């Protein structure tokens, strides 16, 4: 059995997959304890996109769209997460609307970080193109 479930959440052991890229899900997760890594795998090469810690959340996009998961999430060491489905999320937001604001704030930070990452790679790619043209 990959994980253990109790009333306070689900527990995962080191290396256990919480969900896989391209799987279908309608839940998000909040890390109660431990760390997870968010990864993409291409041609057998695993790239770590993020390391998330206690208090962080992941899988939230599945609450808002019908697309498959965009990455795989694995436990680093022992991890305990709280799983929240769409119905529970909407209930929590109706009781505490600031929850939605805090999530949007965190998602905005992630988008800004991704923008910076994409820009840095675009600059590197342009530099390579410029260098190769110098040798032509």
UniProtKB/TrEMBL annotation:
Alphabetical keyword list: Ion channel, Ion transport, Ligand-gated ion channel, Membrane, Transmembrane, Transmembrane helix, Transport
One Gene Ontology cellular component annotation held by this UniProt entry: membrane
Subcellular location: Membrane
Lineage top rank: taxon: Bacteria
Keyword Transmembrane set for record: yes
SUPFAM superfamilies referenced in this protein's UniProt entry, alphabetically: cAMP-binding domain-like
One function term, GO molecular function aspect: intracellularly cyclic nucleotide-activated monoatomic cation channel activity
Topology in the lipid bilayer: Multi-pass membrane protein
Limits of the Cyclic nucleotide-binding domain: 10-110
Pfam families listed in its UniProt record: cNMP_binding
Broad class of where this protein is predominantly found: membrane
UniProt cross-references to PANTHER family, sorted A to Z: CYCLIC NUCLEOTIDE-GATED CATION CHANNEL SUBUNIT A
Name by which UniProt lists this protein: Transcriptional regulator of Crp family
Annotated organism of origin: Candidatus Scalindua rubra
Gene that this polypeptide is encoded by: crp_5
């Amino acid at each position: 059995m990959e994980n253990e479930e109790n009333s306070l959440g689900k527990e995962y052991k080191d290396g256990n997959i919480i969900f896989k890229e391209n799987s279908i899900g309608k839940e998000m997760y909040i890390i109660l304890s431990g760390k997870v890594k968010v990864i993409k795998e291409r041609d057998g090469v695993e790239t770590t996109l993020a390391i998330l810690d206690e208090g962080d959340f992941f899988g939230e996009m599945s609450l808002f769209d019908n697309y498959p998961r965009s990455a795989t999430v694995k436990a680093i060491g022992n991890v305990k997460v709280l799983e929240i489905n769409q119905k529970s999320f909407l209930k929590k937001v109706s009781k505490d609307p600031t929850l939605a604001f805090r999530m949007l704030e965190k998602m905005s930070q992630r988008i800004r970080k991704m923008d910076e990452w994409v820009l840095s790679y675009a600059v590197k790619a342009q530099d390579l193109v410029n260098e190769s043209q110098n040798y032509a």
